Amino acid sequence: MIKKAVIPAAGLGTRFLPATKAQPKEMLPIIDTPTIQYVVQEAIDSGIDDILIISGKGKRTIEDHFDRNFQLETQLKNKADHDLYNEIRRISDMANIHFVRQKELNGLGDAIRYARLHTGDDPFAVLLGDTIIDSVIPVTQQLVDIYNQYKQSIIACEMVPEDKVSCYGIVGGDKISDKIWNVTDLVEKPEVGKSPSNLAIAGRYILTPEIYKMLEQTSFGKGNEIQLTDALRLLLRKERILSYTIEGKRYDIGNKLDYLKTIVDFALKRKGFAEPFREFLQEKLK
Ligand code: UTP
Q1: Residue 156 CA to ligand 1 centre (angstroms)
Q2: Of 110, 156, 118, nearest to 5 (Cα)?
Q3: Beta 33-34 vs 29-30: how paired, if at all?
Q4: Which residue, among 214, 220, 253, has the nearest Cα to 234 in the 3D structure?
Q5: In the chain, helix, strand, coil percent, each to 5?
Q6: For 4-252, CATH number?
Q7: How much distance in Å is there from the Cα of 10 to the middle of ligand 1?
Q8: d(C-alpha 72, C-alpha 74), whole Å
Q9: Number of C-alpha atoms within 13 angstroms, CB side, residue 231?
Q10: Which candidate, 246, 277, 284, 196, places its Cα nearest to that of 46?
């Protein structure tokens, strides 16, 4: 059973400056909902309501977002705006959300180390706080289903074009089925032409607690950061790791172009927006 989720959200978000100079990129809104709320919702929709957010300097608004705001609640109540009131209350009651601060920003692998006390000896899900995956079945649920079958660490992946491999962690492996591979190799941002495959790590994982020992042994890698991919490569020597090609569309909010695409895609699906927004786009593109 996967009962806990870890959401790393401490990064600086340098690709999204200057917007992220004084606000977390995980709070960038998709229309009216912060990115990290979609991520938390995915965990909940996957049956996980014990969530640890890896926070850090300048990330207080994430904590505030999932906390009660009595002044706002009173005002909405007085205005009899029941829908908004209920939504604001729902956000603060969504899940059992805990926070821990990453003291030095030493990369995703380092961020995961801060979850050790919280997850203990249990396997856990990891959902990157700046990545939304739009899917019919929540992607974390898809991973949990595979975990329940194989009881091994699982890396969510998606196929990317050859010229994009150098933007991602890439896995190589042997096919078990169309979607599931037995991972044999992991490379962080390989050069084009030197990649073991086009299967890119997609921001969701199920990890066994053994990963913490591997993180202790992982030295600074690409970008002078402790890379989770490097720790997973060490884990490969001890345990089998599976990759799973997700059913869903991934949006990396930390990338400006992806952010714009997310807003357009979500607006085109949003009740009340879809029609006028489509007309606006059609008019613009004429
Ligand atoms: P990224 O590598 O995309 O985040 O990490 P970043 O370092 O903030 O991005 P840029 O390159 O400077 O724009 C993916 C997720 O891991 C978290 C980030 O907050 C993001 O949600 N992260 C990253 C941490 O929690 N700690 C870190 O040290 C690095």
Answers
A1: 17
A2: 118
A3: antiparallel
A4: 214
A5: 40, 25, 35
A6: 3.90.550.10
A7: 6
A8: 5
A9: 26
A10: 246
Q: What pTM, to 2 d.p., does this model score?
A: 0.96
Q: Is 12 in the pocket of ligand 1 (CB under 6 A)?
A: yes
**pLDDT per residue of the chain (286 residues) written in tens, 0 to 9:** 899 999 999 999 999 999 999 999 999 999 999 999 999 999 999 999 999 999 999 999 999 999 999 999 999 999 988 999 999 999 999 999 999 999 999 999 999 999 999 999 999 999 999 999 999 999 999 999 999 999 999 999 999 999 999 989 999 999 999 999 999 999 988 988 889 999 999 999 999 999 999 999 999 998 999 999 999 999 999 999 999 999 999 999 999 999 999 999 999 999 989 999 999 999 999 8
User: Ligand 1: distance of its center to the CA of 224 in Å?
Assistant: 13
List, by residue range, all CATH 3.90.550.10 domains of the chain: 4-252
CA of residue 229 to ligand 1 center, whole Å: 14
Ligand 1, atom nearest to 9 Cα: 19
